[in-house]
Write a structure and sequence with these properties.
By secondary structure, the protein is an alpha+beta fold. The chain is 39% helix and 31% strand. The chain has 5 helices and 6 strands; from the N terminus they run αααββαββββα.
Length: 181
């Protein structure tokens, strides 16, 4: 009987210890994830060249935020769609970006790219196109279906800001306003 009790106790301890092992690790997809994100950004450049708003918006997760120089943040895909529609409506728009760094979290569910961009566009209310260049950071989140979507897309210009209008220009502008009134 003692022997039976000892065997049962040993089996119980073995069962408990086997249940305390590490949970199975998810498959390592680091290199594939990096390549997937590089492919996404290559396609994103093509979508800008094609001026395809639907495809551009499809790169963003539902709650994403887009921040571009000189514009307020666009939060959510509806606001992002509106901002992108305005951008691609500009016939002079040309945008090209390239990642210089792609990082994927060890957990495999978050990633970011860091890179540079070059853009030509005509700002609203202006007649001449401008050329801008700068840097960007895009944060990605892996979706339930395994695809990557941008959750935060931020660009910052490296071009010097335009100087404020000279005092004589301000007076001329005010005088013109008063004459119209």
């Amino acid at each position: 009987m003692k022997r039976y009790g000892a065997v049962c106790a040993a089996l119980c301890i073995a069962a408990l210890l086997s249940g305390c092992g590490e949970a199975p690790k998810p498959p390592v997809t680091h290199d594939a994830d990096i390549q997937a994100i590089k492919d996404i950004e290559a396609q994103w450049n093509k979508d800008y060249a094609a001026r395809d708003v639907d495809k551009l918006v499809a790169h963003y997760a539902d709650g994403a935020v887009l921040m571009t120089p000189g514009a307020p943040p666009s939060a959510g895909t509806d606001a992002i769609r509106t901002a992108l529609q305005q951008m691609v409506a500009d016939s002079t728009l040309s945008l090209r970006f390239e990642a210089t760094r792609v990082e994927v979290a060890k957990s495999g569910d978050m990633a970011y790219t860091l890179g540079t961009y070059g853009m030509t566009m005509t700002p609203p209310g202006k007649k001449k196109p401008i050329t801008d260049k700068g840097g960007y950071v895009t944060v990605y989140e892996k979706q339930a279906d395994g695809t990557w979507k941008a959750v935060s897309d931020i660009a910052t210009s490296s071009m010097p800001m335009a100087p404020p209008p000279a005092a004589s220009e301000k007076k001329t502008h005010r005088a013109a306003k008063h004459r119209r009134a």
